[in-house]
Amino acid sequence: MESIDPLLLRHKLKAGEDYFLLDVRQPFEHEHFNIGGTLIPLDEIFDNVDSIPRNKPVIVYCQKGIRSQIAIQRLEQRFGFNNLINLTGGMDKWRKLP
Fold it and tell me: Considering the entire predicted model, what is its pTM?
């Protein structure tokens, strides 16, 4: 599974690189703090698979990086996605960036 460190992602986003950010947390978590991603909670991911692009890198994130790993595994196995990248440490690690 491919992954990216939050600091590297932040630099790439600031440089204008085009990513689709996919937040698989619950709505209350997304409302509390997010980085502008599209919210599709993990338990709704299969119902919204058509909302996830296949033509550019998709950064999947959650609070700690575990639910995002599960989402990636499920999407790759069931739907053949090959453009999914896990945000290492999730929002917990992102919030600790300098």
Answer: 0.96
